[in-house]
Amino acid sequence: MTTTRRLDGHKRADEHSVGELVARATTQMSQLLREELQLARMEMAEKGRRAGLGGGLLGGAAVVALFAAGAGVAAAIAGLAVVWPVWLSALVVMVVLLLVAGLMALLGRQEVRRAAPAKPERALRGMQEDLHEIRGRVRR
What does pTM read for this prediction? Predict the structure, then answer.
């Protein structure tokens, strides 16, 4: 079988052999897989950063809650030692610290939830779309 070549030396698009088409498809699939894996790595790094931020906020909330407990102890001691003004002020400080700890805990929990589930959802969805497109083209 003879093939006609264009002036630039390449075969016409409709005259590629099955082997050439399979080789081209294999190369394209390999490139597509590499790009999808790169997207998955980037997505997992983003989720890791979010989980780290959420964990840090939760740790901060625990430290502030510890300070609040210390203020509560100081308030009880001050309440026993001096009847009214000192322990009341220490109690107010304890409530404020607990409010700050609660806010930090809510923000930390929100960040941890945004990082879950720990799988590259966009990359998986992209791979599924690519496979669906390839199957559709093979059927045609």
Answer: 0.43
98-103 long-range Cβ contacts below 8 angstroms, 24+ apart: 98/65, 98/68, 100/64, 101/61, 101/62, 101/64, 101/65, 101/68, 102/61
**pLDDT truncated to tens, each residue of the chain (140 aa)?**
455 555 555 666 567 788 888 888 888 888 988 888 898 888 888 888 888 999 999 999 999 999 998 888 788 778 756 666 777 887 777 888 889 999 999 999 998 888 777 677 777 788 888 878 878 777 77
Q: Report the chain's C-alpha Rg in angstroms.
A: 32
